[in-house]
Amino acid sequence: MDAQTMVAWSKQIETLMEGNLEKHVRDALDELIAAEQWELLSHLMLTGPEFSVRRMTIALAELGVFEPLVAGACLRREVRRSAATGPARLGGGAIFRDFEAPAEGEAAIPDHIMEEAEAISRSADQSRRIAARHEAQLDRDAVRHHIVDTLAELLNTNEAAMEAMIAIARCSVFEETARMAAMKLGNNNIVMGRISRAGRVLDMIAVGEASGSMAVHTIIARSLAQSMPDSSHPSYRVALEHIAGHHPQEATKRAALKALGR
Questions:
Q1: At what angle do helices 214-226 and 201-211 cross, to 10 degrees?
Q2: Is the pTM of this model over 0.90?
Q3: What per-residue confidence (pLDDT) applies to 105?
């Protein structure tokens, strides 16, 4: 995004980032929408306060502009209050900070002790990375849920909303949001029928995987069995594999396995 865009709309950005008075938020949002500043709105979806972003979600959905909503559902992090910082724990500083450079004529720290200290440091770094990944999995941002719920109301009548929901199910870096989007899709017979008739096998299977639901896998297997792609299509064997693994009827499973040559 051009830096001058930020300059030109700095007042509106500040208003939306503050998110205090509803009238001011709505006025700033209306001005950005009138200027079709979709990219800027996408950035604000990721960083703005919940008050402003919820209003942005409703306004953009009413206009049928879904790209900023996809960005928000896929990438927005939960805004959390920082925990109070307590006193540093014992041993929190450098282990050898007073001894790493021995004075002339003095013995240095033995190599095996230095190696052990470095191993401890590497282990601590790895533990922090694991904790960060775990924290991301537990992210419970209410705005992402609001985006998915808003799109779900439009699935049956707006194909672009359906495409946005598929993108969220396949691309959201937050497992819970991807699962929620996939469940909305997988439990909607109209949508699944539309995707199936279009021959979008990979999208259907990706939705099933994201949902983590055996019931959704079964729905997808039923849909695939009713509208299989041509045998020459690259996704033909993928569809057969899914039917063989998840269709509720044994006869259909056996037929799929036979077509796979098993």
A1: 170
A2: no
A3: 56
